[in-house]
UniProtKB/TrEMBL annotation, chains A, B, C, D:
Subcellular location: Cytoplasm
Family: Belongs to the phosphofructokinase type A (PFKA) family. PPi-dependent PFK group II subfamily. Atypical ATP-dependent clade 'X' sub-subfamily.
Protein name per Swiss-Prot or TrEMBL: ATP-dependent 6-phosphofructokinase
GO molecular function, one term: diphosphate-fructose-6-phosphate 1-phosphotransferase activity
UniProt pathway: Carbohydrate degradation; glycolysis; D-glyceraldehyde 3-phosphate and glycerone phosphate from D-glucose: step 3/4
Amino acid sequence: MTLPKPEDLIIHSLGECRFPSPLQLGAASGEYHGEFMSDAAKVRFHVELERLEGRPDDLFFERAGPRERLFFDPSKVKAAIVTCGGLCPGINNVIRSVFLSLKYNYGVPEVYGIRYGYRGLNPAYGDGFIRLTHEMVENIHLHGGTFLGSSRGPQPVEVMLDTLADRGIDMLFCVGGDGTQRGADALAQAARRRNLPLAVVGIPKTIDNDIPYVFRSFGYGTAVEKAREVIAGAHAEAKGAPNGIVIVKLMGRNAGFIAAGATTASQEVNFAFIPELPFDLDPPNGFLAHLEKRVLQRGHAVIVVAEGAGQHLFGDLPVERDASGNIKHHDIGTYLRDRIIAHFRERRIEANVKYIDPSYLIRSVPANCDDAQLSDRFARYAVHAAMAGKTDLLIGYWHGLFVHVPMHLVTSQKKHLSPKSSMWLSVLAATGQPVLMVNEPVPETTAS
Amino acid sequence: MTLPKPEDLIIHSLGECRFPSPLQLGAASGEYHGEFMSDAAKVRFHVELERLEGRPDDLFFERAGPRERLFFDPSKVKAAIVTCGGLCPGINNVIRSVFLSLKYNYGVPEVYGIRYGYRGLNPAYGDGFIRLTHEMVENIHLHGGTFLGSSRGPQPVEVMLDTLADRGIDMLFCVGGDGTQRGADALAQAARRRNLPLAVVGIPKTIDNDIPYVFRSFGYGTAVEKAREVIAGAHAEAKGAPNGIVIVKLMGRNAGFIAAGATTASQEVNFAFIPELPFDLDPPNGFLAHLEKRVLQRGHAVIVVAEGAGQHLFGDLPVERDASGNIKHHDIGTYLRDRIIAHFRERRIEANVKYIDPSYLIRSVPANCDDAQLSDRFARYAVHAAMAGKTDLLIGYWHGLFVHVPMHLVTSQKKHLSPKSSMWLSVLAATGQPVLMVNEPVPETTAS
Amino acid sequence: MTLPKPEDLIIHSLGECRFPSPLQLGAASGEYHGEFMSDAAKVRFHVELERLEGRPDDLFFERAGPRERLFFDPSKVKAAIVTCGGLCPGINNVIRSVFLSLKYNYGVPEVYGIRYGYRGLNPAYGDGFIRLTHEMVENIHLHGGTFLGSSRGPQPVEVMLDTLADRGIDMLFCVGGDGTQRGADALAQAARRRNLPLAVVGIPKTIDNDIPYVFRSFGYGTAVEKAREVIAGAHAEAKGAPNGIVIVKLMGRNAGFIAAGATTASQEVNFAFIPELPFDLDPPNGFLAHLEKRVLQRGHAVIVVAEGAGQHLFGDLPVERDASGNIKHHDIGTYLRDRIIAHFRERRIEANVKYIDPSYLIRSVPANCDDAQLSDRFARYAVHAAMAGKTDLLIGYWHGLFVHVPMHLVTSQKKHLSPKSSMWLSVLAATGQPVLMVNEPVPETTAS
Amino acid sequence: MTLPKPEDLIIHSLGECRFPSPLQLGAASGEYHGEFMSDAAKVRFHVELERLEGRPDDLFFERAGPRERLFFDPSKVKAAIVTCGGLCPGINNVIRSVFLSLKYNYGVPEVYGIRYGYRGLNPAYGDGFIRLTHEMVENIHLHGGTFLGSSRGPQPVEVMLDTLADRGIDMLFCVGGDGTQRGADALAQAARRRNLPLAVVGIPKTIDNDIPYVFRSFGYGTAVEKAREVIAGAHAEAKGAPNGIVIVKLMGRNAGFIAAGATTASQEVNFAFIPELPFDLDPPNGFLAHLEKRVLQRGHAVIVVAEGAGQHLFGDLPVERDASGNIKHHDIGTYLRDRIIAHFRERRIEANVKYIDPSYLIRSVPANCDDAQLSDRFARYAVHAAMAGKTDLLIGYWHGLFVHVPMHLVTSQKKHLSPKSSMWLSVLAATGQPVLMVNEPVPETTAS
């Protein structure tokens, strides 16, 4: 990951903060009170050091939190929230907490939900706005999905900005992944060009947990929980048949966090494949020989593969992209299944091969407690930032602390699972799989 | 369903019961004691009457239960249990309870588990027997799958019988569906021909709940529970996108009980298709027009389809069979998906169509409480029957009572979900779907 | 249980059915259609026979179902629903399905929910009516509790009837236990005296599963599921400490179905106590000696006790009653705990005794799939009955079929768990506990 | 929290590391390999800064991880693991991963489990050692509790050390809270005095999440998950009765993390009380008036109270301690319940007050995925430390990284939930409760 320079970390501001915050916090209050956060409060990024003498310069991000003075007069604010991209556990919690925080903490009179992602800002679709009420959002956090609906792909920035301006929207909360945040970035920049005092605040949503400066994104943990259930079923299937082999395909376009997390949590996986690590199938050191050995020794095997893994195996096949611009990966799951079947058939070894693709099932469930808490906080910190007139930023998170991350830092790269990380070492220990299943020379990293 | 004659209900017996039961029950004990069950105790099959005057002859089945006198000397019994066919929640509970009942209630010294279904009885495979111990089975009921492993398909009857005879097995418990029970029937008959005093007792296993004389089979309810979870996810996906349409394929080769149960329980399904009911896709009264109307009115739709539904739509395409002799159904799920996509594309109506096939996920989980209780009881009643020297029978169940069903009654037909049943009426009410989506004339029943 | 005579089974009718049903069912429709149910359709009660020669007279109940002709003009009906007594999984499903069936199947224009049980019919409390809408009830089945609120105890019948008459209510659905149904019975009788054409239909609600003629009540299965979770925790606690003994108190005032069901499902209980079976604590054959033996042999023990068990141990202590008239049982859970602690202390044997009372936790959860289906059907059958002008009846259920049970049959007695039943035999087998832990002579049954 | 000086962070070592690690990691391996960790690798403690100019000196902890050279010859190691104190989700995962890591990663031939906590090291109890095998531990992570059993309280250090020395134990893994780690510290020091090369490594176990230098302890998240379920039930009960008030008592002796986490996750709590914040009950600003207002406005209320909250309300009542030396708190739950009942009775306002104490239920369940991963890693890092001859340390954790914390740092203080933290601000926002419910002057912090 390329590291930013200190000057890259400056947060855009809409202007002077002239209004006192209605929040009942004392800047210098006693031991038992929360307090306002100063713009001078920072959070360090680096905590790892190889050696003390080589200590790198610290990188400090602006800390998120309620500001004592606001750019907007809360009693006159019109706010809107939009959710984009695929489902992710916790989106409804975010919608709800943004609404509640605006309405009850700040006294904002009008909060709108935009239907079906950015296209709700394009009048050509006619999806429109919903004026949110307490009754509408009261119980939505108990359900999966997104109350507002979602869609993929960009919309014309000027059209969207026209809609927002016509409606008199002061702040827009954009819940989505890197594509969504690119759109948010563009909106914020366009507003700046028009001198429109629009606060655009991004709330990171990535079930794959692959947005940089967000060490843990909401929904990810719930997805791992569901993925573990799937693996438990796969394990039962594998053990239930002679030489049972079950392949589970999990989400993870560019990063293997779900596959790795579910593997470590389940402890029932024998081989895990992630986008970050290349692997071969053929001899001498490819996967199939290792699988055969395992099956002959133990009578069954469970394989987990992230959807973005092993794309190098498809060679020069052309790639397609979905409406969000994401690469449509070649189907590594069915490819592995077919290669495994062919291998055992050729070797005249019985094998009962099954394939499980839980697909949407791990992303459409309600948030578990960690994700419920995370999404609640992302939402509330986004509101604090917007009320203070900050814009073109994303709420980041590490070490239990929330920060302001300039939007451009998260739209140009993905976070990856390092093969040197504690998480991947846990996977190796839990599976007992070889550290690398490649035939030399090792190709370059396959993650895109 | 063809009804048997009273003489068809006689249960085969291995001979005179000369040993007293070690169970501490009094035949004429007081109010607080359980008691032995006489062979004269019966359970009625019919409870529905259209009109009192037209009352049909009652049909009475022998009631299951512990007998006061046993054919086998418990202290010398060698018993074996085999599990066949696909996974089903509760198999491990059955294995465990058969073992515990034999060992602790009857004092049987040797209980064997046969590996990987009937092929474990065929020395050609070399899978062998496991001598079961308390430690082995203690916690297996907490996990999905089958501790013994399973396989599909028949094995040569005489070979299996040789194996059982060589091992000195006195009683064999066969856990499986109709194919398995056909095998059990053949084994019992072959043993009779050899004058081998082998008790063969079938324990019905069918996640589809389609074995006759078993009103509720273990595992079915758990599968419905998991299917409901899948539907909840599908519902979130459907509502999360403009004109979201999600198709969920559920188990149910010949009977729609899982699809119907999950639909009624979830209350979030708009169209449910089962093998028992034909349907058309095209105008004037086919499904696609109804779906289009629903989507245009409400913006989303959830469709549940049993895997055996709509096979008539494939016309004269040849059918294949799996190792168990089950028809390999044409894939109605992807067919529906493709037809829906084509329909909306042709009509130039936006539709976001998703397809979910949870496949093994709904059958590889541990038993819920109802299934845990059911499987426990099926197991214990099977043991009672075998100890009393009964053979060539299946444990049946209705009205909270367990009965002895001659094996031949369950191997020739399937149980179906009647479109006139309370269950199907509930589906119609919950979905609001048309009673029939066919273009006249109505074809004959499609269930096989 | 005292059996009724055939003349006791006649269902009260408000009068001639002059209106055609709007339901799209054909009385003589084809194979694929549901159909209307005739009043002549009956369901047998008895299925068990000791011996064929002694066959008792059959008892036939009127079968529930949609009638072809209705007493009420659906387009003019005002209906109301009230929920009384303690929470039970599935109440919200009942409310929702009554509403949906009335509104969408029958086209009833006005459906009201009554707040907080019968007191909502007493203007003195001012709780009032809610006019139900689709939006209100759409998702309530996904949550535990009762959307309408509940309360205990009776209200003046004439006052309630005045309220209903003033509002022009044509039919009242009473969801509750035996106390509630006594109130419903009184209301129906009072309406008859006034010649008010009010249909009063009871929907049985009893988490304890103790209403006669209802073989399985909604909510019971879900409660067992939660109780099993509690027992799993208790088991972990018991094994986690030297001589760990954990007592779990479960619901079950008069009937031990929850305790027995959870015990059989869990297979981790060593002693289960229910109201139907007396037991002693002291030597020679009391519980404490058996417990001591178990703990010394195995190092831990799990005990499940229904709240109504062992009341005879409190001797002549006076009993109190709650607002519903239910006996407030002496606290057998803490009593057992204290006696166990004292016993081991006295015997100078280490014991780590813990007590778990999950109380409300097993009744406030959403309905599982079986209960969701059951409550849906109870609701819809109640609606069918009311539309046909039937009154003063409860919806009964056995053998998968729903029936009309005259209210007076269920208000005078409770259903009990027979110690001779398959269920209790399963408990004895699963726990290994002695058949009876009493010192002679055996006292009379303790169930009230 | 008092911060240590750099010299306080030095980790004790048993001596020179003469044996190469059998782990297949390269110190300077390529991009796709994990690698050994040098003793020079450090992890920063501070990430928050108020202002850049006031930047405090960094505090660096030794980073945990596999060392390239080991103190012990793995092929000759005898290791032991002991679990102490109350149950906590994940203990079995720790036991299992310690065993697997020792056996399969390092090739350690003998691993022992010590029965029932430290008393298993005291021959007076005769509980003894279990030699662990793969079969024993294979599935234990799927179940709650501790496979080894546990107990509270200290044992004589020299006696324990004698046992370990007699058995030739080289390394002891101590899973427990601060009391346990005090014992581990004493053992390590005593071994040092005897020149016994015994590695004592602590693995922090605290369901309350209150051990310093462990930002997130395993089991805590699972407990919050269960607590949220309890609150959902409480919410249903509260809304189910007129003026329903439900009090839920949750774990949390000294720290309110469980109460705060469950409150934020559930979003259904109206008042939360934690040990860190004092509160009054009486006017003018005490809790009861705020509760009354809430109930009159909204008709129900849910209250969550940590067991250690509000102890100041008991004034000078003497305190007792349990075998672990933990203060036995006065029962704030029933006290609140009684005061609430009295308040509403006195004010002649109807209130239906219920009290739920889930007690053991939230700690005896299996670990969720996060806790499964955490406990796996704590276990494996503890093994790495011990193999390298490090002793008298605890595995610490923050920012996704694991560190070595000198034992003495964690035995003298507890971690607390700061009222200024993001977590507590989320509680205030979610509940809407007043920032402080005290009558001046504010008492000192009540946390002990």
